[in-house]
Amino acid sequence: MEKKILIVDDALFMRKSIRKILSEGGYTNVEEARDGEEAIALYGEYSPDLVLLDITMPGKSGLEVLEELLEQDGNASVVMCSAMGQESVIQKAVVMGARDFIVKPFRKDEFLRIVDSCFPMEE
After folding, report:
1. Are 93 and 62 in contact (CB under 8 A)?
2. Which of 45, 65, 67, 92 is 20 to 30 A from 38 via CA?
3. 4-aspartylphosphate occurs at which residues (predicted)?
4. What pLDDT digit, counting tens, does each position of 17-60 carry?
């Protein structure tokens, strides 16, 4: 079954870049959210297998969204995306329940390795 991925980032160029990388990696069932409120609403409608969540956004921060998603679905699979220099925030996100993190700027191969690791091989 095709995996569903939700990209959450306030920067349009970043959403487009991530969508392109995902498409090149074979992930085509992708939705996008511009902010935390939209992400929470879309999560309920779309039921993604993976959320790629920016940490720094206007309105709700990535950590607030992570907390709400995990309250909504304790099994939510979330990978945080952050700029360099946010190590303490990344550590907090992992303690809160984020599955992994990607530091921007990232390389395509590194990005896809992390996404692929969220989907164990199915028999």
Report:
1. yes
2. 92
3. 54
4. 999 999 999 999 999 999 999 999 999 999 999 999 999 999 99
Structure tokens at 36: 């935390």
Please give the Cα distance from 43 to 6 (Å, whole number): 8
Q: Taking the model in full, what pTM does it have?
A: 0.94
Q: Give the separation between CA 7 and CA 2, rounded to whole angstroms.
A: 16
Domain boundaries defined on the chain: 4-117
CA angle 107, 76, 9 (to 5 degrees): 45
Element (H, E) at 79: strand 78-83
